[in-house]
Batch of 2 targets.
Target 1
Amino acid sequence: MSRIVSEKSLNNKLREAFNGNVTVHIENNCIRVTGKLDNWDDIIKACRMCVSKDKNLHVVNDIQLIGSKIPDMRLPKEHSKELEGERPDVLIVGGGISGASIAREISKWNLSILLVDKEPDLALQASGRNDGEVHPGIDLNKGSLKQHYVLLGNRMFDRICEELDVPFKRRGQYVCFSNRCLYPLIAAFAWQRKYICGVKDTRLVGRRELRSAEPNLNDEFSFALYNPSAGCVSPYGLTIAYAENAVQNGAKISLNTAVLDMDVKNGQILSVNTNKGTLYPKIVINAAGTFAEDIAAMAKDRFFSIHPRKGTNSILDKKVAHLINSIASAKFIMKQKKTNTKGGGILRTVDDNLLVGPNAVETYEKENFATDRSSIEEVFNKQKKTAKGLSERDIITYFTGVRAATFEEDFIIEKGRKTKNIIHCAGIQSPGLTTAPAVALDIEKMVIEQLSEMQQVTRKESFNPKRKTIPILREMSDAERTRLIQKNPDYGVIICRCEEISKGEIIDALNSPISVPTVDGIKKRVRPGMGRCQGGFCMPLISQIISEHENIQMHKVNKSNTDSYITLGEAKEASL
Amino acid sequence: MKDYDVIVIGGGPAGLAAAISADKEGARVLLIEREAKLGGILKQCIHDGFGLVRYGEKLSGPEYAQRFIEEFHIRNIDYSVLTYVIGIEKTEHYTVRVVNTKGVTCYRTKTIILATGCRERTSKQISIHGTRPSGVFTAGTAQAYINILGQMPTKKCVILGSGDIGLIMARRLTLEGAKVCGVYEAKDSPSGLTRNILQCLEDYNIPLYLSHTVTRLFGEDRLKAVEITKVDEKMAPIFGTEEIIECDALILSVGLIPENELAESLHVEIDPRTKGPACDQDFMTNQAGIFTCGNALHVNDLVDYVSESGELAGKAAARYIYKDREYISIDTDNEFLYFLPQKIHIRDIENEMTFYFRSNQVLKNALMTLSVNGKQILKKKYRNLKPPEMETFKLDISQFKLTGDDKVTAALKGENP
């Protein structure tokens, strides 16, 4: 075992900082921190103090939080035996961008693949709650897995998005500076990033070029770091596209399916218990986001910890899209604490909304997606300095996501340490969307290598890398649109007036490979309700379309989860 | 491409009145409606009280609309329902591109009347935070569920905002057997009409809490509770006054916003006070041949005035001849919440002008004056003025022989109660 970390000196530091309430032991190749504290921020601080330079040695947080209850994982209400006795070659736990991209890459092989997610749709946690930036990697130094994969992943986006028919735009990213004196320092930084770290598109742009590209940014900016390779994509759109392509190639996806525990013997997962029965997978892939540590613990292979960190973004009306053409943020150099992810910015999405944020707040609640007025204020106070004309008045909605950070702030992409038939894809936070295509390829290799030891694994001749999306009528030429409407008149009936979405597109979403017949499921696939009226006009119509298409009563139509009913039944007859 | 003199966009009360009135003037008219049926929002307004000013009768929304729909059909005016305008291009005249079940079609027209109505403000626009459960409805959406689809949206709810639709929904839901815990209003006076406060709340013992707002939502799947907080004079929440109320729905009636996305695409100037286009006495915007009326112009208190503005706009559009107009703007003081029209075109004034205004605050024994170059030309007394209640008056302005150098001002004075 590497001894870069001295247990003794760490314990001395901890004793001083936490009055002897926290101790650390280096055991089983982990830095295990134990004790009791009554403040979550102190727990984070204690664990951070213990982070080692040795990349294979992770901090495991076993400090007990006194006085507050860490909520249990929210579980789906339904129970069945639907999956009882299934024996997939590969079980993927988690339907975020990681799980979905892995499923798609493995579907190139003649293997049985089952992906489970406890939520009623894909990408309902971190993968659907981020700004969708495809990062250039400018903020990462050499040596981390994040940095390694961000360069690979970024380059893959044009091809992947073309194959999966997902809108992707390389809008470019500006990190702006006001203080001219910083120029030599930033120039040196840019050189290092370009030639040492391999972020080849990095360059500095002066005031004039910045002004002509982005006339609405703060006039005080004198130069900016520019990466034209930065892009944007719909993060849930890409996740759904990956998953649909996996399904088209034979993978099976089971939503509302939670892993509850595992039977592990002699370093081998024998079975996996879910609310839909017991499964007997050959290999398990842990892509469970903020719950990756819990899954690792079930597999008796817990050697890292996740400390959730939430962030809130605001979505602005398309009317103000003209404020920014790219992705922009400002660096005002002050005595700033080193922050863990970038401090937010303004991004123009593929759909031409502006996204403003996110901030970063440590939390012990992995699934508390509630928003706060203060988060919005914090972000806007900062970002109004980036772009003049930015206003809270143009907010149409906001959302919170929770990042699955490890204390080392890096990814964990490796085979199990004690348990042989698990592969971890954990600690995936920003830039996890950018890295996903590249990470998925490496995990594919690991899976094939391991399965090849047990059985013959062959390539699927019929694998089709192309997935076709639902037609987007509003983007078509009049002639093409007319042609489609004449084939299917539903394409001519506009249901969502803000986003110009037709009934035909909504029905296509209900007929898509992974149909989620809820108001939110439709919204994620074809955007009704994403506009400025936030579904005020179209929600009743969509309830009606779902009800008719699925042949269910209208009060059985949900917003999202089982208990998120919209109406209670017929007026007068409703069980009041 | 088919040619029209007037294309009316929107088949609600404003658009129907505009189309009928333009047709009466002999214009070739096309009305475009995005929903399947004519009538606009009136289709779901099954309560009474419509038409008092116009017909001296208390009609329900659908009954009121039906009178116009019948006349519209008797006149055989061209119309297209389930048809959505995807763009308007300025050519020699205007080209309106629409999509419907037949495909994309273009129409050419000399003038356009925007009768696109308004939309409701949402919970996010008034900064409500917390979780994102189901059970948060704008009042109009809740009304569509119950009155159009026959679906009950709640059994126990809180209503935020005392706008008219909120008050109507308080009564409607109560009649359907739901419990309305109360109507909460952030302002210190109600936003809706006095008659609705009396008939919808007091008659049903539904409490109204002024200077209160909803600050937070609870519940992961369906709404479980809301946090109510008192607010100060600036409508900022007062820390420490929070109260949790259990309910399964929050119904929002926190304001209406004229829908002017099409107008904006045509570079129509928008008045920040009305949030509708700035217009002259013909209801024409700053873009030649583009007219506006109804709730797209400003949020009216009564449908009768919506129809009236539609009729006036329809007539003006039908008679419109392309010609440069000379304007003088009307200066108004800050006692007005807004004042319409914003400007007068001074050549060829034919008819008496119709004015609409609202006061900025509750005023007693108020005096509204209209002056030309400092000389009063009109004086009107009002015993009570309230922001929720719109006022209107007519004046034949041709008698003043206005020229481009004249200054027209409107002023409002009154006592604070």
Target 2
Amino acid sequence: MEQMIFNAQLLEELFPFFIIIEQDLSITFAGKSLRKIIHEAISFEDTFAFIRPKLGIEYKFDSILKFKDQVFILQIRNLSYPINLKGQFVFDSPNNRLLFCGSPWITSDDDFIKTNLYISDFALHDSVLDLLQVTSSLRMEYDDKVTLNSEIEKQKKFYENLFDNIPVDIGVFDNELRYKFLNKNSVKDEKTRKWLINKTLKDYYEFRNLDLQLADERQALLQKAITEKNTVRYQDVYNEFNDNEKVILRELFPYEDYEGRNYLMAYGVDITELKKGRDELIIKNKELEKLNGELDSLAYSITHDLRSPVLALMGLLDIIYESGEFGSENKEYLTLMRKSILRLDDTIREILNYYRNARTEIDYTEINLLHFVNQSFESVQYYVNYKIKLETSIQADCPFYSDENRIITLINNLIANAVKYSRENDGNAFIKFSAIIDHENCLITIQDNGEGIPYDHQKNVFKIFHRASSTTSGSGLGLFICSEIINKLNGKILLESIPLQGTKFTITIPNGTKTIEIS
Amino acid sequence: MYGIVNQGIQGLIIENYGVAIWEKIKAKAGYGDETFLASQLYDDSVTFSLATTAAEVLDISLEHVLKAFGKYWVLNIGKEKYGTLMKSGGDNIIQFLKNLPNFHSRVMLIYPNAQPPEFKVDVINENTIHLHYYSSRIGLTDFMFGLIDGLSEFFDAPCGVNHLNHSETEITYDLFEIVVH
């Protein structure tokens, strides 16, 4: 082995960046690739700087020799872009010189581009280039990590922002009831918020000098929620009985995360306004109840105290009428008195009907429309002194269920109107009543060939106290009540009328079959 | 210094005194919100601040902290993160110390901003060496004592250590005589 002969060419092929330095640190040989960089440089000290080792070594042959068991990093001086050679010194003892074998340390593509080095400058066995591949892929992975991190940051900020902007207090406790999260609404001061993480509710109460007994109570509620794994609700009232009273509805909501860890979310919603509103509603309700009670009394009063005298008057008038003992002038007066009383009675009855429609529940029974129509017509046909023909037609797939009283009132009003606003029509006056009944609805039409309703009145007919004509009897409540009844029954009414030709009402009322079936 | 050093201090404190004390020290040193990343470069002042604050909070001397840290560095960080490298450095303490500079130089190749210390070993006889220590930083001599202590335990080689020389100019230079029993 000692006799192996090397020539420079062999060495150069293996170590294209080698140098040989003499005792005086002059460079006598340099590898081909290194010569490309340092050219004809002779002085070691002027050409190279120690990077490693650096603190303990000197630019002297003997000093270098002392460190020959160590890895060396030499930097080539005076380059616009630094090149570091990594390698080792070997002592060529027969010739008393040092050999440095190493190569440029490449860690990035920049090192190649800026130094003017090429792959062909390196020996094939040199693993520096292999390492370059590894660092490239590591860099890629690192960049991925940075990207992911920034994504996570973005998401974190998004959710933090969300939580800070919800107008609700939100706090999260861990299984040991230490604060894990607090949003901006729950604790306004950021420093306090940060400090509270991993502290307990009691710590917070102590910090704020709040009632510690209350803290114990609250802690017990938290514990209850966690132990029973059930939502706990309570209200926090601040400044009770003051103008500044604030009521917060709080819920403690235990939950598990995706890894099975237990958490408790506590959130609080300000219900002060809601509560105020509700309290006001309760007061108003009481007032309304009182009012309704008074209305009930009034209705009772109307029934008995108003109607009785009216009926008495009507009875007395009938007696006088039938006795026949009155003069022709008085006869006219009697007729007028009768009309007035009837009108009064009508009005009272209509007020009662309105009241009944508004205040009583709908009571579904089977309706015999024909019967009510005939009954109604019989009692009002004498309003006029000529004959009106009543035509009826009922077409039914099934029975019609609705509220009897309301239907009767409806039919009475419409038939009465049809009679009151009829014309003699040379004996051809008619009222046509038709009904089509199916499982869903009852479709009723009442048509007459009477006066009709003037066009500019038509949109007002259903309004309260509207009267188309001042000559006829009636309080003006009739059609109003009809529309109220139809509303209550969830139906619809349509008016078509041509003045001097006639009027047609089309009414749709839901068939209460379903309600009957259920009950 | 790279974050791995700060992580080392963290590990040392947590292992011996628990997380709560560490959080306290970290916050007191001014880094309450910081998460130390191993491969990130931090200013030297961070490490020094952590060490001095630890000494303050634990009511022990800085010397004590640094010695404990040196030992921890070898027996925990070294063993866990550089286990293979350490084993390949040699099967006895002398061999390891001779190869130590190469390890540090290679660290520099990967982390160009690192400023690892330099070492040189002069073999006096079979079980005595002179270890030269050069550092661009001041005040870490006690850390070195801890390091040697840790290595002695790692290689199961009880040693006697004599501090032959110490100088602090722009750099720190220490000369240790290590006698392996």
